[in-house]
Amino acid sequence: MKYKPRRALERSTIIIATLILYKLLLIFIGWSTRKKNITIEDYFVGGRRLGPIITSISYAASNSSAWTLLGVSGIAFSQGLSTLWLVIGVVTGMFMSWLKVAPAILKITRENNLITIPQLISNDYNGRDKKYILFTSSFIIIFSFTFYIASQFQGAGNALNDTFGISIIESIMISAIVIYLYTYMGGYLAVSITDTIQGILMAITAIVMPIVAIVKLGGISELVRGFAFATNEFSSFSAGNIGMTALGLIIGHLGIGLGYFGQPHLLSRFISVKDQDTLVKSRKYAMIWFCVVFTGMWLLGIAGHFMIEDLNNNENIFFRLSNEIFHPAIQGILLAAVVSAIMSTADSQILVCSSSISIDLGIKQNTLKLSRIITGIVILASALIAVLIPEKIFSRVLFAWTAMGSSFGPAVISKIMKWKISAIHLLISIMLGFVLAVIFFLLPNTPGDWLERVMPFMISLALIYFLKKN
To answer: At what angle do helices 102-112 and 276-305 cross, to 10 degrees?
Structure first.
């Protein structure tokens, strides 16, 4: 059942040419939109005028970083059927966020002229209470996103290193420079347009690549037959576990969906949308994209398990299959898709970090020029972490995802539910969610990591609920 690789003489040249053209396109988009950034609002939320296609696809692409194309396919490759619960958790969490959270955020931020998520959750407070909430929120965002963005640069490093043999350091720096150029020039509008292009490329990849892989394997029948020869852990929806251990694994995978209620780089998409009608249309497009991309990458990992034996890093299954079953020109496009996934998340997170520093921390010289300088500093810090502190992409992303989801998710829910809570209790819940996420991350893993992915969020939410004013 194993598929034998074929080699192409001009592979590197064709891939490099494709990738260079793609990166030049991104820089051109940043340059062409630079004059539309007149105010801070233009730079950070696109003037609140984005339509349904750009809103939905850029949201989806911003969510689906290297951890989707590389991480989801990688974990499916190594762990099998049980990871389907992860896909279900992601799609469900995304849908509920669009259905319940998005309309409320759009309404509140438009009525109060708010730009950032920390502004949203602190809007009911004044004076020192508001400053404490803004400062704490900014610290969590900057800390978490610096590691999150570092994982994107690391993904870029892996992609270029695996394909061309370029050193990890050089690969990371190339990606950082390209992202900085188009984000610096074009701001949120350039980020949203490039994210839309990148999201479409990712969706095409998620459709074509698993289909071709399954055909090369021998069809659906061979894919299904492969489970008869697989281990019990790989072919079981509970990874071979039973009882409470199996339940914990399933809850842990589903619990990833809770993070959607507290991700600033995703929630900011709801602030920038044109109106409520646009939001409804965007939700439909986003749902289709999520189902296609996450299911496709999951299937790719499963098929890859039956095609590839000697793989040291499971997160490289995407590159390995690309090299073995596609022409070099197609490989160049697929590599561009991976770089797209990385850039589409990194650029959005960089803008959120910049907005937290320049807006939420109350810097008096709140100018467009200063915001662009801060953007460069955030990129540099993240690139250095990627170089100096390497880590598994999936692990690093899930830590940052859980930390922010547990910190801000309960606070956002309390805001849209109109629960009245004192500033000190809200601040404690934000800090508690973050601290518990860090503690459970450092503890030994449980099946599905349910303690890390679910408990911090639920404890923080319970605290807000029981302390709310009647």
So the answer is: 140
Cα 137 versus chain centre, distance:
19
Instruction: List Cβ neighbours of 175 (8 Å cut-off, separation of 6 or more).
Output: 152, 153, 156, 157, 160, 339, 342, 343, 346
Report pLDDT for 368.
Answer: 58
pLDDT in tens, 244-293: 888 988 998 899 899 999 998 888 888 878 788 888 999 999 999 999 99
- The closest alpha carbon to 142, from 115, 118, 169, 172, belongs to 118
Strand segments, DSSP code E, in 136-295 are none
| DSSP one-letter code for 469 | B
Whether residue 220 contacts residue 53, with contact meaning beta carbons closer than 8 Å, is answered with no
- Read off the tokens for 418: 């109109």
- Note whether 231 and 426 are within 8 A (CB): no
> Residue 113: exposed, middle, or buried by beta-carbon count in 10 A (0-12, 13-18, 19+)?
exposed
The CATH T-level fold of domain 11-392 is Sodium/glucose cotransporter (1.20.1730)
Instruction: List, in order, residues 6 or more apart from 462 with CB less than 8 Å away.
Output: none
293-308 pLDDT per residue, tens: 999 999 999 999 999 8
Tens of pLDDT, residue by residue over 171-186, are: 788 777 877 776 666 5
Q: In the chain, how long is the greatest CA-to-CA distance?
A: 72
All structural domains of the chain with their residue ranges: 11-392
381 Cβ neighbours under 8 A, 6+ residues apart: 146
* DSSP state letters, 347-405: HHHHHHHHHIIIIIT--SS--HHHHHHHHHHHHHHHHHHHHHS---HHHHHHHHHHHHH
Cβ-contact 62, 145 below 8 angstroms: no
Q: Which residue type sits at 258?
A: L
Cα–Cα distances in angstroms (integers) from residue 378 to residues 46, 83, 442, in the given order: 20, 33, 25
**Residue 80: closest CA among 340, 407, 302:** 302
Indicate the SS3 state at residue 179.
Answer: helix
Q: Which residues touch 466 (CB under 8 Å, ≥6 apart)?
A: none
Query: How far apart (Å, rounded) are the C-alpha atoms in residues 457 and 410?
Result: 7
Residues 6+ apart with CB under 8 A from 137: 117, 118, 121, 122, 356, 360, 407, 408, 430
The H helix count followed by the E strand count for the chain is: 20, 0
Cα angle: 193, vertex 195, 198; to 5 degrees: 115
- How much of the chain is helix, strand and coil, in % rounded to 5? 80, 0, 15
